[in-house]
Design goal:
Length: 93
């Protein structure tokens, strides 16, 4: 089981452009792991947002940051996630 999602927004340009497709497997993990650092993920946040970001390490071993490629988009520090899943495939348009 999984999801196929269409990229919306410009936070990850030029790596992912609006209208492109990404696919993930579900169920995702309910928390971050160190294996995710540096990986692109789709995360469902507790506030209802679903975001495409890169996982970065935080200030200590138990904190994480969801970072954008676009430097104009602020990172999300220690986000509260419902689930998080690595990108399995990416289709460029």
């Amino acid at each position: 089981d999984g999801l196929i999602l269409r990229v919306n927004g410009e936070s990850m340009v030029p790596r992912y452009k609006p209208g492109e497709i990404v696919g993930i497997h579900l169920p995702g993990k309910n928390q971050f792991s160190v294996k995710m650092i540096g990986k692109d993920v789709v995360a469902k946040l507790s506030d209802g947002q679903t975001v495409l970001k890169t996982v970065m390490s935080g200030k200590d071993t138990s904190s994480f940051i969801l970072s954008s490629v676009n430097p104009l988009v602020s990172p999300i520090f220690d986000p509260d996630v419902e689930w998080i899943s690595p990108i399995d495939f990416h289709i460029t348009m």
